[in-house]
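Support reply, case 0932

Customer input (verbatim):
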Amino acid sequence: MAKNMEIALLFDFYGEMLTDKQREVIELYYEEDLSLSEIAESQHITRQGVRDAIKRAEAQMLEMEDHLHLKARFGEMREGFAQICRAAQEIQTLNDKFGYSREIDARAKRIVALAEDLKER
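Our regenerated output:
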């Protein structure tokens, strides 16, 4: 399951760099959850041809990630946004505890909203 998620994420970042055939086979295999035989039948190629296309596409996407690190950077950004949200929530808690300020509360809420919005993109 974890490998499927990794390939799905890599496909989000690098799918457009694959050939049309590779992209289609990867979509059918990982997103539509079709078997190698089902894909082979629909694409009019052998089951081994499907497997080879999938393995080549996976290898290409992994190599692209090794060079470009887009998936890794995305994960780091998401973690950074999560840390920003936690820090803003801590500010709100401290604000409530040590003398409430509407301005501090409003700004902390705005930081949380912005970070959450960016994290979801």
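We compared this against your earlier run and they match. Two observations from our side: Residues 73-120 form one domain. Residues 70-97 form the longest helix (28 residues). Please reopen the case if you see a mismatch on your end.
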